[in-house]
Write a structure and sequence with these properties.
The complex is a heterodimer of chains A (425) and B (66). Chain A is built from 15 helices and 14 strands. In chain A, a hairpin with an 8-residue loop joins strand 12 and strand 13. In chain A, helix 8 packs across helix 11 and helix 9 packs across helix 11. Chain B is α+β, with helices and mostly antiparallel strands. Chain B is 27% helix and 18% strand. A two-stranded antiparallel sheet of chain B has the order 1-4. Chain B has a two-stranded antiparallel sheet with strand order 2-3. The mean pLDDT of chain B is 94. The chains are: A alpha+beta (425), B alpha+beta (66). At the A-B interface, helix 5 of A face helix 2 of B.
Chain lengths: 425, 66
């Protein structure tokens, strides 16, 4: 007998749900009424399982052989994928996955992480702090005497770009292009970032074409950088990847290009949104903000609460390789499972008073960086960048205020803020 | 009976969450690998160790059975 899949009226295919903060209310209802539920497919996209509880997301994250990443991590997948994409997926060797570390499965995934991990440990990040602080001051210097502006364009996007481009050895001149290509890759569903003249604004066709054009341009850019580094190796991450060996073999050009693509995208979009979202949260909670500005030694726990509160990544998707039961629901091999981090990070069973923004919350074991096999490699840099940014920002502009609401990214993947009007003084 | 805890040095990536959550028990060494500082975990620290196990990003920490 096959049990009926639990469903719910709340439809997580609806990207408009994520344009306002009300998606948190949707997840509150789902945690109570349907913590593991089947979201039926739409005309365009496949159906998927949706996990709203912290413990269930831990379980899936910690079983990477049963819940794999190589069949896509950014959503349930299109109902009618292009034949070439299907063929490419079918050609992948089992247990290895795609060429990008984020869509790779064990055992290759861990080996790939080890090639670069030493550059991301707390020790490595702490050693970079003076440089990150200098980069932060440069960003704020550029704001100068301006009375008001767009915090995203002028501040929160600039520091992550400076740091990741610095790690990769890319020049200052590359920042605008990296910013543009990150937006094309992760904001492809938002009409503002759609560059391709295909389909109507906001359509799946326009999103797909925009993302593809952005990724091609990114690969083209990095092919040239690889040429330069081969001729003239440096100390940067790209040179490390070019020299690295995995199982006695060098990485393929495609693997290195995918790695560069991921470093750029993951290295700047998420931290940007944590900084922007952090300012919004502090502005909306003046008592907490006052407490922090009166005692900046609270910054570390404030950063953790900002991460919990903003959860810059809405979800990651896995595909089940076996039949598994979670909370009485039967998940079948081949079905997609989406892990909703904002929901886990407001789970009443884990966090006391989860809808309270509390900069001294303890314990605060949020999973904004995921957990397990694919735990965010850049977590240490993100924490450091957010911390240094708020220290320097409040030192320079102690009275900074929102001058309007955040302009949100149209995405169910990234909790993005495109524009944030502020008065600096 | 006092319990023992261990860190899988191959799984550890040095994120340092255990050192943050239970500094009495875990410290990163010069190679950024978490090392257990106590042979036996006193009852007073069991809850902290449980939390370190639960929050380790890489599942590198386990109780020693027996």
């Amino acid at each position: 007998m096959v049990a009926e899949k639990q469903t719910h009226d709340i439809n997580l295919h609806d990207v408009n749900l994520f344009l306002r903060d009300e998606f948190h209310e949707a997840f509150r209802v789902l945690r109570r009424e349907a913590p593991v539920h089947w979201n039926p497919g739409s005309a365009r996209a496949n159906g998927f399982w949706s996990l709203a509880k912290y413990e269930d997301i831990l379980f899936v994250s910690r079983n990477p052989e049963t819940f794999i990443s190589s069949k896509g991590i950014g959503g349930p997948g299109e109902r009618n994928p292009r034949p070439e994409d299907v063929a490419r997926a079918a050609a992948r060797p089992p247990g290895e996955g795609d060429s990008s570390i984020i869509t790779m499965d064990p055992p290759r995934h861990v080996k790939m992480r080890r090639l670069v991990n030493k550059g991301f440990t707390p020790r490595a990040v702490n050693a970079m702090e003076p440089q990150i602080r200098a980069q932060t001051r440069e960003v704020l210097d550029a704001v100068g005497d301006r009375a008001s502006g767009d915090f995203v364009l002028e501040v929160s996007s600039q520091l992550p770009l400076a740091v990741i481009c610095g790690l990769m050895g890319l020049p200052r001149e590359a920042w605008p292009l990296m910013f543009e290509l990150t937006n094309a890759a992760l904001g492809a569903g938002d009409p503002e970032y759609q560059t391709a003249q295909v389909g109507t604004a906001g359509s799946t066709e326009a999103a797909r074409a925009t993302a593809r054009a952005g990724n091609l341009r990114m690969a083209q850019y990095f092919r040239e950088v690889l040429e330069q580094r081969r001729a003239e190796p440096r100390e940067d991450l790209i040179s490390i990847l070019l020299e690295a060996e995995l199982d006695g073999e060098q990485l393929t050009e495609r693997e290195i290009l995918e790695f560069c693509n991921l470093l750029v995208i993951a290295g700047n979009e998420t931290t940007r949104n944590a900084i922007s979202g952090g300012l919004v949260a502090l502005d909306e909670h003046p008592d907490e903000r006052e407490r922090l500005q009166a005692d900046m030694s609270l910054i570390d726990s404030a950063v953790e609460e900002i991460l919990r509160w903003t959860s810059p990544l809405h979800h990651m998707t896995r595909e089940a390789t076996a039949d598994v039961e979670i909370r009485g629901q039967q998940i079948s091999a081949g079905e997609k499972v989406m892990m909703w981090y904002p929901s886990a990070n407001r789970d009443e069973d884990v966090f006391d008073d989860p809808y309270r923004f509390d900069i001294t919350r303890s314990p605060n074991d949020h999973i904004a960086f995921g957990i397990g096999e694919h735990f965010c490699l850049g977590a240490g840099f993100a924490r450091k960048e957010i911390r240094v940014m708020f220290e320097e920002l409040f030192d320079r502009y102690p009275k900074i205020r929102l001058a309007g609401g955040p302009d949100r990214l149209r995405s169910s993947f990234i909790n993005g803020i495109k524009h944030l009007p502020v008065d600096y003084r | 009976m006092p319990r023992k805890v261990t860190v899988d040095a191959l799984a550890c990536e040095g994120h340092g969450r255990c050192q943050n959550n239970a500094p009495e028990v875990f410290q990163l060494d010069a190679d950024d690998i978490s090392r257990v500082q106590l042979d036996e975990i006193p009852d007073a620290l069991v809850a902290k160790v449980e939390r370190a196990i639960r929050t380790c990003p890489r599942q590198a920490i386990t109780w020693v059975e027996g």
